[in-house]
Amino acid sequence: HQSDRRLELATFGMGCFWGPEARFGGMPGVVRTRVGFAGGTELNPTYRQMGDHTETVQIEFDPLVISYTDVLREFWQNHYPNRDNYKGRQYISLWHYHTEQQHQTVEAIKKEMEAKLGETIETEITPFSGFTAAEERHQKYYLKRYPKALEQLAELYPDRELLTDSTFAARLNGFVKGYGTKDSVREEIAQWNMEEVEQKFLIKLFSKMKW
Ligand code: MHO
What we know:
37% of the residues lie in helices and 17% in strands. It is an alpha+beta fold. Strand 4, helix 3 (100-117) and strand 5 (124-127) form a beta-alpha-beta unit. 36% of the residues are buried. The chain binds S-oxymethionine. This is peptide-methionine (S)-S-oxide reductase.
């Protein structure tokens, strides 16, 4: 699919991971999304046994289209970071930075958001320490509610791993949750870094998709 040159990673938790995967998956410039577990010590976490890990979304994005700063603002503008942790660490507000440059940006945007919120932000900000993908049934969770659409995608993505990693599926998962319109999705596909015949194929598939 899209080539991976110059992609950047962001890893964060902001409550149940289904919603933020759709939100960020619907954003132009986000090339790949996955949900999983991060931040804890439990070995081989699963949904049923995540131990001290947090429900986390990991995105790969093209910084020429969407900046790390944009991703951070979207993160803080769309959850309350100081909630009581009623289920231990499962739903805490968590930000993992991958580089020292990212770390500095996180601290700067945190200050900006604290000024807006009028409160100290308690998001746990720590260096990335690993990410374990969640079970397949949690990936692109909202898109999975549309079996007819999945059937039409099955030819393109014969195994579910391919669907999980696809930019198209990330955008569709956002679309079904109300992020983006038919036109915005079509317009964006036309910008993707792939052959024009592939773009046309995806646009047609999307336009004719039965939900
Ligand atoms: N309360 C939600 C949480 C799911 S999210 C993957 C539910 O069980 O529907 O934690």
